[in-house]
Amino acid sequence: MFEDTRPYYDEEIPAAIARVANHPLFETIVHHIVPEADIEKYRQEFLRIRTVREFQTQVMFQAIRNILQKTSDGLTHAGFDTLNPNQQYMFVANHRDILLDAAILQVLLHEHHLDTSEITFGSNLMQGGLVTDIGKMNKMFRIVRGGTAHDFYRNSIEVSSYMRYAITQKRQSVWIAQRNGRTKDGSDRTESAELKMFSISSSLPFADNLNELSITPVAISYEYEPCDIAKTQELFIAQYQPYIKEPGEDLRSIIQGIMQHKGHIHLAVMPTITREELDECARQEKNARFSALAKTIDQRIRDGYHLWPNNYIAYDLLHHCNRFADRYNPEERNRFMDYMMQGLQQLQGEEDELHNIFLGIYANPVVFKQG
Q1: How far apart are the two ends of the chain, measured CA to CA in Å?
Q2: Which DSSP string do the residues of 321-361 spell out, in sequence order?
Q3: Cα radius of gyration (the chain)
Q4: Which of 53, 104, 206, 319 could hold 282 in an S-S bridge, CB 3.0 to 4.6 Å?
């Protein structure tokens, strides 16, 4: 059932572990995440892993914590005390980094003695057996990107059905981004089409249908936007022509997101959408119901999003004002400007446009936060 979509079962883990342990890139990966490790001793310990839980607790959580220790100035969080360990949730999150957004949530769930969630994993990222094995051992399931309109609808039914099955039958929570792909310009908005996709796996009335999924917004905020320079270049090109990704670009973005300095990070789990709120949305006509729900989710994410001095600095620079000058000091302003200028020197394009796009990535969360 759902063979092309689901993560690995425990009985599939030993074979996947052996494939990863014998892969030519195994040593390189280990040195990146556990540089002090004796590679052969680590390989033998790795080969003893037999379950998804063992893979997550012995490998993934340590790897993510090591990444955060090296590339961030600290992780704070909120809202985990509101989660019921006996309930499953559809975590609908703003999406800034391909890997870390969901990975950080998993670490925090585990540290709060809660079960980890399953995670959507774009088919565009499942390139090669190594990435697929690591992803599926980490409770990631496949969501197909691209194709014809017919393919899109068929794939939407598949992933919608699988997510509902995971939550209601497997008793597993699910993480999914609020939109198709990462937010590039700093404006986090939930796509109504995403919410419609959630609903097509059930014939229940609107409120009953979505209440069954326990939709729970999640907001993650990075002091330094992951892949901000690359996002600036992409947004610049997209102003003049369709942006076409180069082969391997998604994997490069994963690596860049891992390696880039992130400053401070805050992740907030917000209150679950209530039955009363769904009933209120249901009183509207069909398409407006989903728009109303999207606005409710956006408000939750807006409430949980944490603004940093960089956001206020960028807003004032972009708008040539001192509106938020009380939220930062001259040293922080100069540091951000130096960081921006060093990054923009790497890009091709009209300097003022690149400058404004970059500032917009950091300034738009201020506008979003204000509603």
Answers
A1: 43
A2: S-TTGGGS-HHHHHHHHHHHHHHHTT--S-HHHHHHHHHHH
A3: 21
A4: 206
Q: Which fold has domain 10-226+262-306?
A: Glycerol-3-phosphate (1)-acyltransferase (3.40.1130)
Between CA 275 and CA 257 the distance in angstroms is: 37
Dump pLDDT digits (tens) for 23-48: 999 998 888 778 888 999 999 999 99
- In the chain, alpha helices (H): 13-21, 26-33, 39-46, 52-55, 61-71, 100-111, 129-137, 149-168, 192-199, 206-211, 228-238, 249-259, 275-282, 286-304, 309-318, 330-344, 351-369
**pLDDT value of position 328:** 98
Strand-by-strand arrangement of the 140-143 sheet: 72-78, 263-269, 215-222, 90-93, 174-177, 118-122, 140-143
d(Cα 358, Cα 127) in Å, to the nearest integer? 30
Q: Who's near 71: CB < 8 A, 6+ residues apart?
A: 258, 259, 260, 261, 262
* Angstrom distance (rounded) from CA 140 to CA 26: 20
The label of the residue with tokens 């809202």 reads 79
Written as one string, the DSSP assignment of 260-329 is: S--EEEEEEEPPPPPHHHHHHHHTS-HHHHHHHHHHHHHHHHHHHPPP-HHHHHHHHHHTTS-TTGGGS-
Contacts of 116 (CB under 8 A, 6+ apart): 56, 106, 109, 110, 139, 173
User: Which residues partner with 216 through β-bridges?
Assistant: 91
263/74 Cα distance (integer angstroms): 7
Closest by Cα among 302, 129, 76, 89 to 210 = 89
The reported pLDDT for the residue numbered 247 is: 77
Residue 127 has a pLDDT of 67
* Residue range 94-111, pLDDT digits in tens: 999 999 999 999 999 999
Please report how many Cα atoms fall inside a 13 Å half-sphere around the Cα of residue 22, on the Cβ side: 7
- For residues 135 and 126, the answer to whether their CB atoms sit within 8 Å is yes
For the question of whether the overall pTM of this predicted structure is more than 0.85, the answer is yes
Domain boundaries along the sequence of the chain: 10-226+262-306, 227-243+307-371
Q: Which residues of the chain have pLDDT under 70?
A: 127-128, 146
CA–CA separation, 210 vs 199, rounded Å?
7
Task: For tokens 């990146």, name the residue.
Answer: 32
